[in-house]
Amino acid sequence: MKYWQPKFETMEHNELRELQLKRLKKTAAAVYDNVPFYREKFDALGITPDDVKSLDDIKKLPTTRKTDLRDNYPFGLFAVPKKDIVRIHASSGTSGKPTVVGYTANDINTWADMMARNFTMVGLDATDTFQNAVNYGLFTGGLGFHYGIERLGAMAVPSGTGNTVRQIEMMEDFGVTAIHCTPSYGLYLAETVREMGVIDKLSLRVGCFGAEPWSSSTRKELESAFNIKAYDSYGLSEMMGPGIGFECPEQDGLHIWSDHYIVEILDKNGEEVAEGEKGEIVLTSLTKEALPVIRYRTGDIARRLKSECACGRTTDRISRILGRADDMLIVRGINVFPSQIEDVLVRIEKITDQFEIYLDRNKKKLDEITVRVELDEDAFTGEIGDLATVKRVVEGELKSVLNIRANVDLVEKGTIPRSTGKAKRVFDRREAI
Ligand code: ADP
Ligand code: K
Ligand code: ZN
């Protein structure tokens, strides 16, 4: 089977826009009637849901930010009575206090189908065995993927995170064909597979990686280490969780499920960018019942792509996530994204894929960036000269990509803690001084 819900995945353009408008009107009315926060925002702008007459009118609607969820913590933005909520999750709190999100039974159902669409899209079906190696708690990635795997009819292996050797034994013993984890945990698993020398015993075909940014070099690394195709999975708890955007076999950008979400890519002035340009992803949910969200400022940066795709799906499409606005480091006035550093390091031999970034302010009050990288065991012959060469290569590559000098701190393999979820890579010590 090529599509899970062909009617929605391949819907003709005009019909899709009509469906979006109908659902946008309904969502605007739902938040206006049931969520005081939105009622006040609409009132302040002097609008009512009746002002939504075309899709373009979305621009009249207020935006929502993470702080709005925090201010209304925990359940203040829910649009249905508590008896209709069947589950809550929380964001991972990458940038502050976690926020809580809720789901009705219909929401859970919608989400499972979206995930099943994604899995079908990357060639999985009921015959597959799917290991879900992410945290199964409040984090959306655990149960979100799990329900989708079951909806597809595949066999779920809810391994969670940790105990990395055991994870790999399970892959071997259960004949696991698909895996989901964060890209940073994926790299750690890959390293362990290499150390155990078991790649020939694994039956993996597909890997789904998401929840944090990763580069195309990391994709190559994961694909060759596991002998798989690696696909990007995008999502955020405010919009349900993972799976609202997913790569197809073209591996060239994310399909955003447009019957469930409107995606805007906005520049600094809040204007829609042209195709190919980058901006902030702003999402409006169209079918969420428990927690409908209007024009959510994700803080995630991506490019707008044209919607035609060789896979036949007609959804809106965006590039992979280029970074998170609040990820961006400003070092001596130059913008640096950790993903740029990752992209450089993963391509260099003789070092592992693990790294940490330290930001300091020196005596002259200038920013210093130090990248800690690990030397691969077999790269060190005992010659001090080797170390100097590796250091020089890494510094040179970083300089050419970042346009500023970064110090490189070479450490022994295993020094940098391996992450099983979203990795913490940046340590900004500039404020402390
Ligand atoms: P938090 O914002 O606390 O991390 P979530 O767990 O909801 O909360 O994570 C959502 C965020 O994770 C997204 O806004 C995005 O920044 C990041 N993210 C999720 N999937 C991807 C992906 N495939 N690529 C890059 N970043 C991603
Ligand atoms: K099955
Ligand atoms: Zn496609």
UniProtKB/TrEMBL annotation:
Gene3D superfamilies: 3.30.300.30, N-terminal domain of ligase-like
AMP-dependent synthetase/ligase domain mapped to chain residues: 79-283
GO molecular function annotation: nucleotide binding; phenylacetate-CoA ligase activity
Record carries keyword Nucleotide-binding: yes
Record keywords, A-Z: Ligase, Nucleotide-binding, Phosphopantetheine, Phosphoprotein
All residue ranges annotated as the AMP-dependent ligase C-terminal domain in the record: 333-430
Database matches in Pfam families: AMP-binding, AMP-binding_C_2
One GO-annotated biological process of the protein: phenylacetate catabolic process
Domain of life: Archaea
Pathway(s) it belongs to: Aromatic compound metabolism
Complexes and interactors: Monomer.
Record-given protein name: Phenylacetate--CoA ligase
